[in-house]
Amino acid sequence: MNRKISQRSMAIIIKKYANRRLYDSSTGRYVNLEDLAELIRKGKEIQVLDAKSGEDLTRVILTQIIVEDAKGQPTGLPLELLRQLIVASDHAGREFLMWYLKSAFDAYHNVQDTVQSRLTDVRSAAMAPLSLIGNIFGGPPQPDGETEKLRRRVEELEALLQKPGRKKKTGRR
After folding, report:
1. CA torsion angle for 149, 150, 156, 159 (degrees, to 10)?
2. Which of these, 31, 73, 112, 119, is most buried using a 10 Å CB contact count?
3. What's the whole-model pTM score?
């Protein structure tokens, strides 16, 4: 429940006026259903409130967006689904249908996320041989911190050995 409240608090507030105009309070401009659909597609959370009463009209406006979107599509929502929405006029039937649609939508998103993850894995696996070839032909690998420290220490020791006037120690006394 707290998650919904925090999401709503971050939502873009849209005010709906009696003349059916929609006002985006975050940008200070009037918008239409198409603009709202674009915001939602970009992952933005919106909340539509009646400008006079403060009543939450988000569900009604989202339904209008779906209906408007279906007008332009030859397929739209399946007729059987639309019929079942009308038939499920009792509370229990409507609740079950909404639960079912949400479950199906969640399953769709899980599959989509899994596919994206697998594509990333495949892309990485496909690029690995190219990276290896690039390392072979692209020159020596860059030294890490430990290798760099050892290289500097060897240089210091060589410099000490090459200083003039320094006598080499022998094992005898």
Report:
1. -140
2. 31
3. 0.50
